[in-house]
Give the backbone structure.
Amino acid sequence: MIKMLNRQVGYLILIIALVACSAKSGKDSGTQDVAPVSVEVPVFDADSAYAYVERQVEFGYRVPNTPAHRATADYLAAELKRHGAAVEVQEGTVTAYDGTELSIRNIIGSFSPEKKNRILLFAHWDTRPYADNDADKSKHRMPIAGADDGASGVGVLLEIARQVGQKLPDAGVDIAFFDAEDYGAPYWAQTSDEDTWALGTQYWTRRPHKPGYRARFGILLDMVGGTGAKFRHEMFSEYYASGIVKQVWETARRLGYGSYFVDEKGGYVTDDHVYVNRYGIPSIDIIACWRETETGFPPYWHTVDDTMKNIDPATLKAVGQTVLTVIYEE
Ligand code: AHN
Ligand code: ZN
């Protein structure tokens, strides 16, 4: 009887020791004591994002009314589905600056669609039919490959979709690929109307994929893959959503990406986020801002040189890890 009791006490002490041990090692290995927010943020894979950019460019010019454009849309919708999103493909027709009817597709992938607390991430997936900023005037009516201008934002968002699909954040996430952003009036057109840009987003704000759709805020990614890119505070973003600008730039600095996300004013850029802001969702534009060029955009912007050779995985990483951190900390 005494022996049995001793054995039971022995087991009990062993169990207490094991529990105490695991509790201790758990505390020591954790970073809860120092990190400001205790959520675990997935690691953004820049090589995966780079491959997504490359894959889009391989489809060819993603210009509305072309076979390459249709094939790319199918691919993007399938990728979002594969990562577990509920996908809606919104098909429509819009009229371009020159009267051309464009068949467009806005592609929206939703994670945790039942949640009320939502974040909207978006990028345009079409590419410009004109290299009208090229130094060589004979190329102005040629299409651009759009590695940075188009594919980079989508590539980062597809990698974010892959991460979100593996481990859902607290907030619901919608990833929208908007069409026909870059079919705006060229210099030889009769018009220079700003509303000839972002036609897909304008279409969506007139008839959102879910009637009355709301998100707490939105983040647009445009030209987020270029070597040597700097992101300055775009001014419409400051006007409509200065708090989100602050949150994103502070997060970037905390993660060590302060050399990409510079705390300086950029210009006003008429881009997809302007229409999403007018719709009523406070939204910012993370967009490369160059002080060294006349346009304020990268030197290859709207030229035949917007190709993979300018895409740097380190830039994709800075943007992707920053945005991923923002959504997991919400
Ligand atoms: C205008 O040039 C009016 N907006 C620039 C938006 C843009 C074009 N982003 C990429 N391509
Ligand atoms: Zn463009």
